[in-house]
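I hope you will forgive my troubling you with a question about protein structure. Here, with my thanks, is the record as I have it:
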Amino acid sequence: MRSVIFDLDGTLADTSGDLIAAANACFRGLGHGDMLDPVDDAATAFRGGRAMLRLGFGRLGLEEDALSEQVEGQFNDLLAHYEAAIDVHTVLYPGAMDAVERLRGQGVRVGICTNKPEGLAEILLRNLGVREAFGALIGADTLPVRKPDAAPLAETVSRMGGKLERSLIVGDTSTDRLAARAAGIPCILVTFGPDGRAVAALEPEALLDHFDHLPDLVAEMLP
């Protein structure tokens, strides 16, 4: 049985606007105003909450020790802000769910492995009305380790009843590429995120310009 593992942020859905808004809420609460730009800093949003906080506090000129302290001090507040407004700006990428349904119709098992906390991923997917389409969901805190460790990918496939050697991952960053390499499975990286076709430098097995092409690509890579 073939399995396709999807990353969430920057792969299935553009969540950058709500992530940036949550980080900016933290900065405003400290009297700094909005430190991040929803467009220019979108790529950093897909690298996680701490990356956004680090970027914003870095622009204030903080020394490393003070910067790290502020990042950790604000991280839980960022998660709270994000949960309170998790789907204001978030949209699924064009064709994402059509591709998922086509894969399911072809007998391919589909699941999600994300470095977003599992609870937040559950809330977002349910709010978007797509949670039931996926046979498994593994988040950053589901296991003791997260991507780029191979274990979350293996667990995603296991929960779907698939086999890792008959699986691939669709992602958008080096984290997904490294996780695929650690698991010994192929990686498809999308080119419609903030990094565009620059992800080709990560040397994935394939690039995806639009979800319309994914089912055929999966058929080629997992015959």
